[in-house]
Amino acid sequence: MAKAQPINADQPATSPQIKRPAHWRENHGSGFEGREALLGQAMSMVIKTLSQTEPYQHHVNGALVLAHLGAMQFAKNNGLLNEYVEHDRKMMEPVNFRIRKLIEETGNKELALEATFDITECHYQLVLDTKVEPGKRTWVSPFKTSIEACRRMGMMDMTEADVHNLWTRPRLEAYARDMGVEFRVSDLGADGTVTCEVM
User: Fold this and answer.
1) How far apart are the C-alpha atoms of 22 and 38, rounded to whole Å?
2) In CA terms, which of 34, 109, 162, 195 is 20 to 30 Å from 135?
């Protein structure tokens, strides 16, 4: 029986070049080869943090949450919340302007959400779980537990609604303006849920 031949036998077979994400690795493995000590330190930190259950169950984002809250309370105490948001916007300007250029070149507004939520540890180390959908991202505000504990101890007087309305929403809206898009940031849900949509 004759061996099956390709339809265009006279042309060399080529594989289509598929663009891979920047983090794609051609070689298999854990990706931590040569960095085992770093991984061990990180896992030790996770275990120590999650072992802390008093006065509440701590999470791996706890120190970052408290750093944000401490800075926000300082800004509120000194009437500087608007300036604090503008400082953060200005700090992120080079990154957001770079994303603006990519959006202008491609017409893909989804890049604004990817840059703000998906590929930056500034978000995914603070918010441990974000639902990714075309045109929007949804998460639960990470501040509630720490705010309640700090308020009980008299460390701060901010509420989770204050954080959302005076920090989260205006900061995200400022990022969007710099990226040349518009974000619609939802009100804080009763369960702390927030949704950000690109318009």
Assistant:
1) 22
2) 162
Mean per-residue pLDDT for 23-31?
A: 61
Give the list of residues 6+ apart from residue 164 with CB closer than 8 angstroms, or none: 141, 187, 188, 194
- Measure the CA–CA gap between 151 and 82, rounded to whole angstroms: 22
Instruction: Return the closest-CA partner of residue 173 out of 88, 68, 72.
Output: 88
Distance, in Å, from the CA atom of 193 to the CA atom of 179, rounded to the nearest integer, reads 24
Task: Say how far apart CA 20 and CA 22 lie, in whole Å.
Answer: 6
SS (H, E, C) the chain: CCCCCCCCCCCCCCCCCCCCCCCCCCCCCCCCCCCHHHHHHHHHHHHHHHHCCCCCCCCCCHHHHHHHHHHHHHHHHCCCHHHHHHHHHHHHHHHHHHHHHHHHHHCCCHHHHHHHHHCCHHHHCCCCCEEEECCEEEEECCCHHHHHHHHHCCCCCCCHHHHHHHHHHHHHHHHHHHHCCCEEECCCCCCCEEEEEEC
In percent, how much of the chain has pLDDT > 90?
52
Please choose, from the candidates 132, 87, 79, the residue with its C-alpha nearest in 3D space to the C-alpha of residue 110.
Answer: 132
Q: Per the structure block, which two tokens stand in for 100?
A: 């603006």
Q: Which pTM value belongs to this model?
A: 0.75
The token duo for 30 is 């854990």
**CATH class belonging to 56-198:** alpha beta
pLDDT of residue 8 exceeding 70: no
